[in-house]
Each structure stands twice: as structure tokens, then as C-alpha cells.
Design a protein that fits this description.
Layout (H helix, E strand, L loop, with lengths): L3 E4 L4 E4 L9 E5 L3 E6 L4 E6 L5 E5 L9 E7 L5 E3 L2 H4 L5 E7 L2 E8 L2 E8 L6 E10 L5 E11 L14 E6 L4 E6 L10 E6 L5 E5 H5 L9 H5 L7 E2 L3 E11 L4 E11 L2 H10 L3 H17 L5 E3 L3 H21 L4 E3 H14 L1 H12 L11 E4 L17 H13 L8 E3 L5 E3 H14 L28 E2 H21 L2 H21 L1 E2 L2 E2 L2 E2 L5 E2 L9 E2 H9 L5 H15 E2 L2 E2 L2 E2 L25 E2 H13 L3 H11 L14 E2 L20 H13 L2 E4 L2 E4 L9 E8 L2 E9 L4 E4 L2 E3 L3 E3 L9 E8 L6
Length: 768
């Protein structure tokens, strides 16, 4: 069944069936406030400041219930329905939901009444703005009541037990506002207050949730809405709602618009200022129009045209938009170190200045001894065990630095000075070197990197908790970082560092091959007790894909050796939605390994398709020249309507071993490091725009069944218009002139010309 389609040149996705396989969410945000909204108005809304203080206005990240409702009541027939059909279960005459870049619009019709609901988050304020338009096209006058309802919780991690005993809410008819407070002592100095304002005076209201819901305690058909009148209840030490009633008398052809502004504030004065900014339709419409233009502009001018229309829409629009979300919010409830740096590497392609700021932010949270935390903006220390030592964090600094340098060609960025989190300051270059030294000096008895409380995989939290366990993948990641920094050192002319990196690389490579190899693949780690994780003798977790893919990315093995490993590994791990992270999955808890063994099989990196790990494998397949295999996996992990939102890269897919009925689908949309790697895999590898410090090498790696591709890429101020086709011999024309090789020198300041045309022909001798 088709549930929707891209419209407006891919800038919007229109859902025409309110019951897709699961809720399909849009993310609306600014750096302070994030709202998730699905096709039935479900989702969540939250505020978080740079210190990690978090306030949920309503909903929770993984709560699928709807916190927003728009009810309609025909006061002549007593019929009740909702703009989102799931709320009341009443069948509508017509329905659609359009998710756009920064806004969502629901449209529905029932009994001659057309309702349009629009929601967006303004650029700066911590809140969301609703607009409800009610249009009478029934051919006769109508008496309609509109009820706008939200579940207000004002929850957050800084609250003491029993916080609900400290909340209250009251109305202010003069200001056309409801005001909500959480007066818990632990949050009195933070933004744990909220308001609802409407530009059309309300007829009735409710703040007490129990009074609003009545005896049936259900949002499906609250008694007061069925009867046609809210109760005018304030609230104290009880659960709250924001419920407003507007009674409308509409002649045939008449329309009434009601705007509702909801926000998280510190006090009433801040609510006054917020309200003044969006006091009427003109101000609201102007803000949304600015947001639309801003979000389109943030996509940049790069554009690709391949034989796959969905692929084009994803990478021309939605992947870039999602990457900006990751840049602003990382993984929503915290900003992880590895997350920020990997996101920065991808952001470099569309906004290198922003990527540099992200790198600097991460470096500000590095200690002067080179140590890097798991996360630096957290809502609590329990989130991702942020106070624990995760070994991989320092290794990602070079990953981001390298991508930014290759995009800009600006070596002077390495001389920028950034403070450490504890004391002192240093250049970006020395931050990189401190990270490498820290990793190099944090090794165990086999000369491999210690894994501590985990590496990239947070759930490997017991492997090295006692300080003895060593990571094979972690050692390969260190080897990769050494190669990257060696190359940067060569660019700088720093032969001392380049030589040191080369020597260290050869030493750890030898240790990886000696202690990390097990007959036909690389193991994952050694535990504190000296037991191997991911070897052939293991009954569970016998193979992990990350050490195999990173071995070729780091040059530990060549393409031929990688091909041999894949003959063993791929039949074990491949599924219709990509390769599983490990196989067989763990079904019994192993205290030597930790949390991954206690996770139900088929979920959360335990035998599921973790798209981030799959993106590493895609990069490895491209590095090994396995172009068709790389693209096959690429397509499998990309979103499509049978497994996820078709317009947003999910974090993972449920694996084939899961006990649940629905497998090969995603429960975890939008928040993922995969999207940054998708951008790198698309532009650097698939399209073959391979950036170097001195310019770019054009080396497309399109699948064998694509014969024609074109794309536009902005690089150092010059627009590259590139076409790719197949022919007898490989050749490249630059502005119509044949070039003997496929490298184009581009200085830091770009080319003298604003545009350049490249025609690349893939010869028959080029393998796939």
C-alpha cells in the first residue's frame, strides 16, 4: 500500500493514509526547543539549555501517545471528531498530513467542515505555534466548537521524587492565556514554567487533567467535549492539560483562524515577551515564511540527479535537513563527543564553517591530558553513562579535522587556539596530537588499545571496566587516526609527527594482526579476564562487522583480504535491511561483556541492523572497490515506507532474531550518526568527489546498473557541474578539454572561475 509521496520538488512529504506501518514523525526545532510531531499529532516537545537542563513541555521521546489534540464539535448534531483521526476514531471524509522542512500541516474534512492545522517551532523561542483554520463549505450556516488540547507535564531529570505535588496552573482571561508552573525546589531557578496564549479570546478552558477527562479518563472522547463545554478548571498539585474552547458561528463559505502559542519560560514576564512576538497571524506567517526560506537555504546548492528518484529527494533535501538537526541537537537528550565529531565530518560538505564550530565545541570539552568524555551536554550523568571512560572519544577528533581540511584546504585552521575543559589552551593541531598521545599511552598487555567502559559500542560496558580489557576495533580506530594525522602532518611539513605516526601505526598494525585475528576474521576485544569476544569459539557474538570494515578503512588489510573475510561474514549478517551488527545475537547475560548481552536479541546493537555500523561497512566496500555491494547495502539501510519514515534516516532496524512479530522495521527515527556517514558515502564515494587538501579527484563509484548520473557540487567557492556516463574508455573532459588524469587542483581560495563543467566517462575496464 502506498501511504504518501514526495511533493513540491521533494521539499515536502505528503501522507494520505493516517495509518502507515507506524507513526511517521517530523522534527521541528531551534537550538533551544525540539518538537516531534507525527501524522496524528503524537510526539513530544522539550527544552534543553547548554548546561543540559531539560524540561519536557509534554510527551517523552519514546512515547507514541499523542500529546496534542484538536477536537471539533457540531453543536447542532452533537457530532464530535478530530483533525487527526486516531484521536477519536471517527472516520473523516478526507485527510492528509504534509511534513515540510520545519513545519507540519494536517488537513481534514468532515460533514462539510474543512480544518487545517499547522505547527512549527520559531527560530529562537522555546515553544511551538499552532494555527487552526476552520472553513465552512457545507452550504449552510454552522455552529462549531473547536477544542485545542495539550497534555502539559513540565517534567525533567532535575526533579525530585513526587514533583507533581509542586505543580499548578491558572488562567488569565485578560491576557488570553493559561499559565503552568512546576514549583519543585530543585527547579525553581530553571525554566520549569510554561504558557498557552491564543489570539482569539477563549470561551472556556480546563487546566486540571482529571476534571477535563471526567470519569472515563480517556482522551478519545472526553465527557466535557461530548457535552460541548469545558469546565473552567484551574489546577493545583495534579496532572495538567492546556485545553481551550472556541465557539464559532460560521456562515457558508466563512473561515475562522485561531492561533495558539505554547512556550517554556522562566516567568510571566518572559511569557509576555514571547506572546508579543507572535500576537497575531501576520507575525506568525512572517516567521514561518522566514523559517522556510532559511531551511531551503541551509540545503546549499549541491544537487544530484540519479536514476533513483527517492535517492535524489533524500540527498538533495532530507538528509541535509536531518544533518542540521544532528548538528543542533545531536541525539536529543545529550550531545555526545563522538556524535558531534562525526556529525561535523558530514556537515563539512554542506557548511564547513558550522563544522569547524562543532569541532571547536568538542575540543573545548577535551581535557589537557587528551582525555575526552562520552558526552558534554547531558541532562543527567546517567545518560549514556557520561561520567564513565569510553575509549573511542579522542579518536574522532582527527576524523572531523580531516574532513574539514579536505573541504576547505585551509591549514591555518590548525593554528586556531581552543581552551581545554580543565586548564590551559592549545591549537587545534595540538588538540589532535594530545588525543593521539592519550590513546597511544592507554594500551594493554597485547599492545592494543584499552576499551575501558566501552568504545563506539556503549553497551560493551564491562569488557574493560577493570582497566585490563583491550579492544581490537578500538585499536583499528587508533590505527586509522594515526594514518589520518600522519597525512595532515605531511601537509603541514611536520616530518617529526609524520614519522612518529608512521612508526606507531606499523607497531599497532602488527599487534592487531597478531592478537586480533582469528582464523578467518577479526575478533572484537579481550575482556578484563582475558577472554576473547567475537571469535570462532564463541557460541554467541561470534562475528562483529565493525572490526572487519574498519580493518580495510585503516589499511590493516587490503581489498583482496577483505573480500575473503566477507565470504564468511556476509552470509551470516546480511538481511533485507542491511547487515546486523553482530551474529549470532546474545541470548544470555555475560558479565564479562556487559549490557549488550542483556539486551533482547535483535535490538540495540545485539543482532540488529544498526545503521551507523552498516554505514561503516558501506565505506569499507567502496574502499575495497565493491561498488555494487556498497550500493546494495546503502539502499537497504536508507528509509522507505515499509520500514520507517521514507524521508528520515533511522538509527536501526529490528533484527531477524527478535522475539517480536514486526522485524526489519525501525522504532528509532531521526537521531543517528548514520546520516553524516551517508553524506560522506554519497558524495565522497558513490559520486566520487574525492576531496584532498590540494583539490579534488573525480572517481565515481556508481553501481553497474546506473549509466548516467549528474550532480552539482559547490567546492571552495566554485560550482562543479559534473556528468557521469559509461563508454568504451575512461576519460574526463574539463570545460570540453580532455584531461590526462582525474585530479583537479583547487586552491584554498578556489578556482578563478565561478563554474566548471566536468564530463566523466567510465570505461569498460573499470571494475564494479
Amino acid at each position: 500500500m502506498k501511504y504518501g509521496s514526495y511533493i513540491n520538488n521533494g521539499l515536502e512529504y505528503n501522507i494520505t493514509n493516517s495509518q502507515p506501518p507506524r507513526d511517521w514523525f517530523n522534527m521541528l526545532w531551534n537550538p533551544k526547543y525540539l518538537a516531534s510531531v507525527g501524522q496524528n499529532l503524537n510526539g513530544f516537545s522539550l527544552y534543553q539549555n547548554e548546561a543540559g537542563v531539560l524540561t519536557n513541555l509534554f510527551g517523552k521521546q519514546d512515547d507514541r501517545s499523542a500529546p496534542r489534540h484538536i477536537y471539533l464539535r457540531d453543536n447542532e448534531t452533537n457530532d464530535v471528531w478530530s483533525v487527526a483521526p486516531n484521536t477519536t476514531g471517527v472516520e473523516l471524509d478526507d485527510y492528509s498530513c504534509t511534513h515540510g522542512l520545519g513545519y507540519t500541516i494536517l488537513e481534514s474534512k468532515k460533514n462539510g467542515i474543512k480544518v487545517t492545522f499547522q505547527i512549527f517551532v520559531p527560530r529562537q523561542e522555546a515553544g511551538e505555534i499552532w494555527s487552526v483554520k476552520v472553513f465552512n463549505e457545507s452550504g449552510r450556516p454552522r455552529n462549531i466548537s473547536v477544542f485545542s488540547v495539550a497534555k502539559v507535564i513540565l517534567d525533567g531529570v532535575n526533579l525530585t521524587y513526587g514533583y507533581n505535588s509542586a505543580v499548578d496552573g491558572y488562567h488569565d482571561r485578560e491576557k488570553q492565556r493559561l499559565f503552568f508552573r512546576n514549583r519543585s525546589v530543585s527547579v525553581m531557578t530553571e525554566k520549569y514554567r510554561a504558557f498557552t496564549y491564543t489570539d482569539v479570546p477563549f470561551d472556556h478552558f480546563d487546566i486540571s487533567k482529571d476534571v477535563f477527562l471526567g470519569h472515563n479518563l480517556s482522551f478519545e472522547m472526553p465527557d466535557c467535549i461530548v457535552k460541548g463545554q469545558l469546565n473552567d478548571s484551574d489546577a493545583s498539585t495534579e496532572y495538567m492539560v492546556s485545553a481551550l474552547q472556541h465557539n464559532l458561528n460560521l456562515n457558508d463559505g466563512a473561515e475562522q483562524r485561531i492561533n495558539i502559542v505554547m512556550g517554556i519560560v522562566f516567568d510571566e514576564a518572559e511569557a509576555d515577551d514571547f506572546t508579543a512576538l507572535y500576537a497575531n497571524s501576520a507575525r506568525i506567517d512572517a516567521e514561518l515564511e522566514t523559517i522556510k526560506k532559511q531551511n531551503i537555504a541551509r540545503l546549499g546548492l549541491s544537487e544530484l540527479n540519479t536514476p533513483d528518484a527517492d535517492f535524489n529527494n533524500l540527498f538533495n533535501v532530507w538528509m541535509k535537513h536531518q544533518l542540521h538537526l544532528m548538528a543542533d541537537w545531536a541525539r536529543f537528550y545529550f550531545k555526545g563527543y563522538r556524535d558531534t565529531l562525526q556529525d561535523a565530518a558530514g556537515v563539512a560538505i554542506i557548511d564547513p564553517d558550522r563544522a569547524l564550530k562543532m569541532l571547536e565545541k568538542a575540543l573545548e570539552n577535551q581535557k589537557s591530558n587528551g582525555f575526552c568524555p562520552r558526552a558534554f551536554r547531558v541532562s543527567s550523568m546517567e545518560v549514556a553513562a557520561a561520567d564513565k571512560h569510553y575509549s573511542d572519544s579522542p579518536s574522532w577528533i582527527s576524523h572531523a579535522t580531516y574532513s574539514i581540511l579536505r573541504e576547505t584546504g585551509d591549514l591555518s585552521m590548525l593554528d586556531k587556539v581552543v581552551a581545554y575543559s580543565d586548564s590551559g589552551e592549545d591549537t587545534i593541531w595540538n588538540h589532535n596530537l594530545k588525543a593521539l598521545d592519550f590513546l597511544w599511552n592507554d594500551r594493554g598487555e597485547h599492545g592494543l588499545a584499552l576499551i575501558r567502559h566501552g568504545d563506539w559500542n556503549d553497551l560493551m560496558d564491562r569488557v574493560g571496566a577493570e582497566g585490563k580489557g583491550e579492544g581490537v576495533w578500538m585499536s583499528i580506530a587508533l590505527a586509522k587516526a594515526l594514518k589520518v594525522v600522519e597525512e595532515i602532518a605531511a601537509w603541514k611539513g611536520d616530518t617529526t609527527i609524520a614519522t612518529q605516526c608512521a612508526e606507531r601505526y606499523h607497531e599497532i598494525k602488527a599487534n592487531i594482526l597478531k592478537y586480533g585475528w582469528d582464523e578467518d576474521h577479526f575478533i572484537y576485544a579481550y575482556t578484563d579476564a582475558g577472554n576473547k569476544v567475537g571469535d570462532n569459539a564463541s557460541e554467541e557474538g561470534q562475528v562483529f562487522i565493525n572490526p572487519q570494515s574498519w580493518a580495510v578503512l585503516a589499511g590493516i588489510i587490503d581489498a583482496e583480504k577483505y573480500e575473503v573475510i566477507m565470504k564468511k561474514v556476509e552470509p551470516m549478517v546480511d538481511t533485507p535491511v542491511g547487515p546486523v551488527h553482530n551474529w549470532p545475537p546474545f541470548t544470555k547475560y555475560n558479565k564479562d561483556i556487559g549490557s549488550i548481552t542483556g539486551i533482547p536479541q535483535g535490538n540495540f546493537t545485539n543482532g540488529n541492523v544498526y545503521c551507523h555500523a552498516a554505514s561503516f561497512k558501506i565505506a569499507a566496500d567502496y574502499a575495497a572497490g565493491r561498488n555494487d555491494k556498497a550500493f546494495e547495502t546503502f539502499k537497504r539501510i536508507l528509509p522507505s515506507e515499509e520500514k520507517s519514515e521514507p524521508y528520515a534516516q533511522p538509527n536501526s532496524y529490528v533484527g531477524p532474531s527478535a522475539l517480536r512479530k514486526d522485524r526489519h522495521v525501525s522504532d528509532d527515527p531521526w537521531r543517528t550518526g548514520t546520516v553524516a556517514w551517508n553524506m560522506l558515502n554519497c558524495f565522497d564515494n558513490l559520486l566520487g568527489f574525492k576531496r584532498t587538501l590540494k583539490g579534488v579527484t573525480i572517481d565515481p563509484q556508481i553501481p553497474s546498473f546506473w549509466n548516467n548520473v549528474s550532480y552539482t557540487r559547490i567546492f571552495r567557492g566554485t560550482t562543479f557541474n559534473i556528468t557521469i556516463k559509461r563508454g568504451e574508455e575512461q576519460m574526463m573532459l574539463v570545460d570540453g578539454k580532455e584531461q590526462t588524469d582525474n585530479f583537479i587542483e583547487v586552491s584554498e581560495s578556489g578556482l578563478n572561475q565561478k563554474e566548471i563543467s566536468i564530463d566523466f566517462q567510465i570505461g569498460k575496464t573499470k571494475t564494479n
